[in-house]
Write a structure and sequence with these properties.
Length: 311
């Protein structure tokens, strides 16, 4: 269970509640979660559909405590893995007090698309309040274009507030958090002040390996990969940890690409992931990676369930 590296202060406000971060892929949900909690909990890459599981991040501040639930992007899903991801996102609505809908303000699209309409319909049915975050406004060259964007969204849904933000730069993120606090009920903190996430270090380490696969592999191959932590040995006498992990792919040809010529690709992935995991754990890490072929794991219900992507 991950704890913050620095003093995060104490809860001084009256509200406490859970908030789902929702939106289509690649709008900056995970970047926003990391920005708000001040730690890297969710992996971030330029590729859509990087997030596969719900990830909890806890914010403690003067307004109270907010338990954020980062969710996979809502998209047209065909494969079993993709259906699981969309199901994770939509199912989160029933379990939270409120929602944060994140949209991309730099794409020039006025108002809701299919994914946003699906999310808003689910929120309306569940009678959950929602704040709209129009993200990536730092990439909008003509700032006057933000006003028509806000007007279009105001017509498309009933929002408790609408806040233009930049998750990357932190612009208006504090204001966004204040607006979210206004939606939440009064109450005692749900977690202690040192709690940052409910995910284990093993889960976070596997995600950091998967992040490097998304960053270094091209085209569709990263979507056919999964990471399993096989063993985890903490050596107190040396102050380090030894991790063995398997990278799963669906075909022999994919295995060859992940390994790379003379093992170059898997070495690059391992070197970068080891650095990230070392920063996460704040200690030296020895990471050993092996690539295994598990045919059609992205469509097999049994394999998806075994890997934690199914019931």
């Amino acid at each position: 269970m991950k704890e913050p590296k620095k003093d995060r202060g104490t809860v001084a406000g009256p509200v406490a509640g859970t908030v789902a971060i929702l939106g289509r892929p690649n709008v900056g949900k995970s970047t926003l979660l990391n920005r708000i909690v001040g730690e890297k909990l969710a992996i971030v890459t330029p590729k859509p559909q990087t997030t596969r599981n719900r990830i909890v991040g806890v914010w403690n501040g003067e307004g109270g405590q907010i338990v954020f639930v980062d969710t996979p992007g809502v998209h047209g899903a065909r494969k079993g893995l993709n259906r699981y991801m969309v199901g994770e996102a939509m199912a989160a609505i029933a379990d939270v007090d409120a929602a944060l809908l994140v949209v991309d303000g730099s794409d020039g699209k006025p108002g809701a698309g299919d994914a946003e309409r699906m999310i808003l319909a689910g929120l309306a049915e569940a009678k959950k309040p929602v704040v709209l975050a129009i993200n990536k406004v730092d990439k909008v060259k003509d700032k006057t274009a933000v006003l028509p964007m806000l007007a279009a969204w105001e017509k498309g849904g009933r929002f408790a507030a609408m806040v233009p933000i930049s998750a990357t730069r932190g612009t208006n993120v504090d204001e966004l958090v204040r607006e979210i606090c206004r939606m939440l009920p009064e109450g005692e903190p749900l977690y202690g002040p040192d709690m940052l996430t409910d995910r284990t270090e093993r889960f976070l380490a596997a995600e950091l390996v998967r992040e490097q696969l998304f960053l270094k592999l091209k085209q569709e191959l990263p979507y056919a990969t999964a990471v399993v932590i096989e063993s985890w040995q903490e050596r107190s006498d040396r102050g380090d940890v030894v991790i063995d992990a398997s990278i799963l792919v669906e075909r022999d040809s994919q295995r060859g690409i992940v390994v790379g010529k003379a093992g170059a690709m898997i070495r690059d992935v391992g070197t970068a992931a080891r650095k990230e995991i070392g920063e996460l754990l704040d200690r030296p890490v020895h990471l050993r990676l092996e690539v295994k072929v598990v045919p059609d794991w992205t469509t097999s219900p049994n394999e998806l369930a075994r890997l934690g992507y199914g019931p």
